[in-house]
Design goal:
This protein is an alpha/beta fold. The protein has two domains: 213 residues, Rossmann fold (3-Layer(aba) Sandwich); 93 residues, UDP-galactose 4-epimerase, domain 1 (Alpha-Beta Complex).
């Protein structure tokens, strides 16, 4: 019998790609999402890729009563992957209370339900933002956590602490926190990808929308950083590689292969790429010359960060397979697909 995996925020960018990989690995996927920053049409793309449309429950998990009702009807869940959260760094600076309320209350409600309904296994969507600006690069899991530079980053750091304390207080709960670096790209089928509402907060959808003509120009936030070319440096990994790591983490928990009740892994390529290098990669694979303008630094952004992914490489047997150019090409294919699709409606 297939094991049922609950994916919160499963119609979102990373959640939808993870749903595909879970289905491909033989899991039964159920999604909870409030569709705040996503669309249920994503399920059609998941179905076209995998042959199966996962069940969707439209629930805001900040509503503890509705969440409890869901779990009372679904007592056969083997593990939860928790993506559902607000995620924009700069927006969190201007709306801190919204981020603390949504990201932390939803997690607390979920953990309450896990304890009540004796669901053991949780994979938590964390972030490299918990490191702040690391003193040493590449950064590994043993690095001291610096004060977060944004409320978003702080919700991830506090979320990890809440999970850790819950695991230590209840031996029936086990968890893996996956600290992502910067996911980009789309499924190679171009049937699912990143589709932000409004002006994109992340670099790559801003790039692709500018290239397509939806934006007049790309705004680059600062080129006066202490980096080789003056631009911010990040560790960009393909979203499909990231999704596959969640499947490995779920299997590790449900097959009792975890080494402790609470584990943490970095997910990145191990390579630092500047914003300018990312732009050049896109121009190379798309053949489109981008219009961009350097503007003031953005609140909450750090200067440079990239991962030491060696623990995930050795312990999980996971590593990134796609190149930066391949990720950029998939993002461009996705942008073209959704714009053609919107014109035919």
């Amino acid at each position: 019998m297939k094991k049922k995996i609950l994916v919160t925020g499963g119609t979102g960018y990373i959640g939808s790609h993870t749903a595909v990989e879970l289905i491909n690995e033989g899991f039964d996927v159920t999604i909870i999402d409030n569709l705040y920053n996503s669309d249920k049409e994503v399920l059609d793309g998941i179905e076209k890729i995998s042959g199966i449309k996962p069940a969707l429950q439209i629930i805001d998990i900040c509503d503890g009563e509705k969440l409890d009702g869901f779990f009372s009807r679904n007592k056969d869940i083997a593990a939860i992957i928790h993506f559902a959260a607000y995620k924009a760094v700069s927006e969190s600076v201007s709306k801190p209370l919204d981020y603390y309320r949504n990201n932390l209350l939803s997690l607390i409600n979920l953990l309450d339900s896990m304890k009540k309904y004796r669901i053991q296994n949780l994979v938590f969507s964390s972030s490299c933002t918990v490191y702040g600006q690391p003193e040493n690069l590449p950064v590994n899991e043993n690095a001291p956590l610096q004060p977060a530079t944004s409320p978003y980053g702080n919700t991830k750091a506090v979320g990890e602490e809440i999970i850790r304390d819950t695991v230590f207080s209840d031996s029936n709960v086990r968890a893996i926190a996956l600290r992502y670096f910067n996911p980009i790209g789309a499924h190679p089928s171009a049937l699912i990808g990143e589709l932000p509402r409004g002006v994109p907060e992340n670099l790559v959808p801003y790039i692709t929308q500018t290239a397509y003509g939806l934006r007049d120009e790309l705004k680059v936030f600062g080129n006066d950083y202490d980096t080789p070319d003056g631009y911010c440096i990040r560790d960009y990994l393909h979203v499909v590689d990231l999704a596959k790591a969640h499947v490995i983490a779920v299997k590790r928990l449900v097959e009792d292969k975890n080494r402790s009740g609470y584990e943490i892994f970095n997910l990145g390529t191990g390579n630092g790429v500047s914003v300018l290098e990312a732009i050049k990669s896109f121009e190379r694979v798309s053949g489109v010359k981008l219009r961009y303008k350097v503007v003031e630094r953005r609140p909450g952004d750090i200067e440079k960060i990239w991962a030491d992914p060696s623990l995930a490489n050795s312990e999980l047997g996971w590593k990134t397979l796609s190149t930066l150019d391949e990720a950029m090409k998939s993002a461009w294919d996705w942008e073209n697909y959704i714009r053609r699709k919107s014109k035919t409606r």
